[in-house]
Amino acid sequence: MNRRTSLKTLAAVAAGSAAVPSEAAANPIQLHVDLEVDMAKEKELLANFRNTFKPTISKQPGFVEVKLMKFRKAMAGNGPGPWNYRLLISFQTEEQRTKWVAADDHQRAWPTIEKCLKGQKAAAWLYDIA
To answer: Which domains does the chain show, CATH number per domain?
Structure first.
């Protein structure tokens, strides 16, 4: 067996061993949380997100992805009002996300984000991903 055949075989085995996603995994949910961050605490927010929140949520069953985005400018329509950051959280199912919210890990990780907020603090929208 030559090197090219070996690499093709390895790739085929790896592809075949991947689990076939369930319907829930194929269509995860995404929570959009708009945050009004106290800009005097922005560096603390970013450090808390990187060092506490993201590593903690990443270990949860059903976790897909988390992103923290800073608003730059409105390209069309009105801006987001007081919300200067958006947290995007994806899980395979809404039930898994709900379990994360109730978990002790969430009770420890979320306050590290929340303490950097002001005013209305946060607003949230839940989406099904098509």
So the answer is: 27-128 (3.30.70.100)
